[in-house]
Write a structure and sequence with these properties.
single chain, mainly alpha, 4 strands, about 5% strand, elongated
């Protein structure tokens, strides 16, 4: 995460209820028996899960919540009781997500047969994708659906409207004159992806609103704690850690036709470096920053449109000033532009200015020459 989440960020109550129901069901499934109503909790959430089935909804063409749970139960009945107990222990012992991030267990379910793993993932995915929207469950959570929760998240000044992972993009556009319940919302990202860590599929601390670039284009189903090659790694815990004080922008080859902008890590701490590399790999931070600033001349034209060298220097100095926290959390790219201009303010900009003016004059002279040739 570029910016850590506020510690008092409201957790989505529906996820808390479903997470508890998931654990309750696994606990009740340890003992041998038949699939029955008593496997679910007595309250509204348990009843909603039990009632949501193809048996009760003739319109359903696919398995619903109860059907998914029944298949999980059947698969678990085919293994030894100690395996079912171990699954329960996995759920119970890993509810503290910060502790898990500090000491990740990367192969939580390796003891579980593939059939059970598949059934568990199917339940986890269905809870997140469909069960969370069942009316009785939303009612049990105080009537707040996921859109209402997102509006609460975005309304907190301590979190703001900009993606906490990258600082580059608004979470979702806000439209004037549109009711809160009809506003667009960001997707909720599973920090621990549900395909690899289904036990956290509806854990309220595992789900964070991110911009569509971070969630859909960059992260997808990447594993925070394992590289594609299988090597183990660490990751920032979103509620307690952030990257912004550990990064810098360097400007190289200022006299070249195209100076190079590089994002670098400004720490020697091995654990933090590891987490920075993970953050970069998951959200493709470095390539996005360097891509945005690939043409320094375009950046300066767009942000300053300098009238002369003195004007350029004054504007760079002004834009290098620290950005107030509220702006960082409501304006796209503000963190990154301040970092860039802060670095520009430390170097001699005169060679760049002379080069850009020369290129500009050459462009004008070349254009006039071509036009003159056409006219003749």
């Amino acid at each position: 995460m570029l910016f850590q989440l506020s510690s008092n960020t409201p957790r989505f109550r529906v996820f808390s209820l479903l997470n508890s129901e998931f654990i309750y069901f696994i606990e009740q499934s340890v003992a041998q028996g038949e699939f029955r109503r008593e496997l679910f909790s007595e309250g509204a959430v348990g009843q909603a899960c039990w009632s949501n089935s193809k048996v009760n909804d003739v319109r359903a063409s696919k398995d619903l919540t109860r059907d998914k749970f029944e298949k999980l139960f059947s698969s678990l009945q085919g293994v030894e009781e100690n395996v079912r107990q171990e699954l329960l222990d996995v759920f119970r012992d890993n509810q503290d997500l910060q502790a898990f991030f500090n000491a990740p267990s990367r192969n939580l379910l390796e003891f579980l047969p593939l059939l059970c793993q598949t059934a568990l993932k199917n339940v986890a995915t269905h809870l997140y994708c469909a069960t969370k929207d069942i009316a009785p469950i939303i009612a049990a959570a105080g009537g707040l659906d996921i859109t209402a929760h997102f509006n609460l998240f975005r309304g907190m000044s301590s979190n703001g409207k900009i993606c906490k992972a990258c600082g580059m993009k608004e979470l979702a556009a806000f439209r004037a004159g549109v009711a809160d319940g009809d506003q667009w919302r960001a997707d909720y990202d599973h920090q621990l992806c549900k395909s690899k860590y289904p036990t956290f599929a509806v854990h309220p601390d595992n789900l964070i609103p991110l911009c569509d670039v971070c969630n859909q284009d960059a992260k997808k189903a990447k594993d925070l704690f394992k590289c594609d090659g299988g090597n183990e790694r660490l990751a920032f815990y979103p509620y307690a850690e952030e990257a912004r004080e550990l990064i810098a922008i360097e400007i190289q080859r200022l006299r070249d036709p195209e100076p190079t902008i590089k994002l670098v890590w400004s720490t020697d701490d091995a654990a933090r470096l590891n987490k920075l590399q993970t953050w970069d790999d998951i959200y493709e931070i470095r390539s996005r920053v360097e891509g945005r600033f690939s043409s320094l001349e375009v950046v300066i034209d767009d942000e300053i449109n300098p009238a002369g060298i003195d004007h350029l220097r004054n504007q760079i100095n002004d834009k290098a000033r620290p950005v107030v926290e509220r702006t960082l959390k409501r304006k796209e790219w503000s963190f990154w532009y301040q970092k860039l201009f802060q670095q520009l303010n430390l170097i001699d900009i005169a060679p760049f200015w002379e080069k850009s003016q020369f290129v500009h004059r050459q462009g004008i002279d070349g254009g006039e020459y071509i036009l003159a040739g056409v006219q003749n």
